[in-house]
Amino acid sequence: MAARPTLIIGNRNYSSWSLRPWLFMQSSGIDFVTEMVPLQTERFAERVGALSPTHKVPLLLDGAIKVWDSLAICECVREQYKVADAWPRQPEARAVARSVVAEMHSGFAALRNAMPMNLRRTPQALPAVADDVHQDIARIIALWQDCRERFGAEGEGLFGRFGIADAFFAPVAMRFHSYAVALEGSAQAYADYLRNLPAMREWRDAANAEVERIDKYETSVAHA
User: How confident is the model at residue 164, as a pLDDT?
Assistant: First the structure.
């Protein structure tokens, strides 16, 4: 019997990059092992530094295969485990899905920096939001609304059935909740869908049980 693949992740509370492939794999029914290594610790430097050429998480170990990027992990899992709904089946929808995932993967730096993922944060708006953050938020909302309207008829995901695109925008939905970003209509419905996925609830419960704290992600944070 072949060994199960291992996904090495950082703290569930903070690591949005780790969340994406984990959520995709868990929601796709992949049988895998999760190894959480706390960020910014000596153990992280030793364990991840010895395995990953980038010294970062997430990292997938699957037999002789080693993959160290969140999107590459999703693509390898899709291929290796024949995940049918990873991408939309219709060519136009699939092209748009790949485009928006790439946009999320490489963009929205202002939003990421101003609103780091912190699932234990009591929902609270920031006292001030810079223009570039507002622009990122507006772009994401417009993207969600457009994809849902054009391609979402077959389910509650961005392109109907849950896929890689949904896994990539899940951390954004969590950020919007944590920082009390105002949503409405289809954007609010989509954010609620992501937050209430069974796998997302499982991840959130584990994040709430963590005890590690990283101060730079806790600025202006109020805890319950």
Answer: 98
Q: Across-strand partners of 66?
A: 61
> Could you tell me which of 112, 91, 92 has the C-alpha nearest to residue 103?
112
User: What is the tens place of the pLDDT at every residue in 183-205?
Assistant: 999 999 999 999 999 999 999 99
Are 72 and 106 in the same domain?
A: no
pLDDT tier for residue 223 given thresholds of 50, 70 and 90: very low
Could you tell me if residue 155 is inside a domain? yes
Tell me how far apart the alpha carbons of residues 83 and 73 are, in angstroms, rounded to a whole number. Answer: 13
Distance CA 56, CA 10 (A): 9
Report the DSSP pairing between strands 6-9 and 59-62. antiparallel
Q: Pairing state of beta strands 33-36 and 6-9?
A: parallel
The domain of 198 spans: 91-205
Which tokens belong to 69?
């990027």
Distance, in Å, from the CA atom of 4 to the CA atom of 146, rounded to the nearest integer, reads 38
The partner residues of 34 in beta bridges, in order of sequence, read 7
For residues 8 and 58, the answer to whether their CB atoms sit within 8 Å is: yes
Q: Residue 39 and residue 21: Cα distance in Å, rounded?
A: 17
Tens-digit pLDDT profile for residues 58-79: 999 999 999 999 999 999 999 9
Pairing of the two strands 65-67 and 59-62: antiparallel
Neighbours of 91 (CB within 10 A): 8
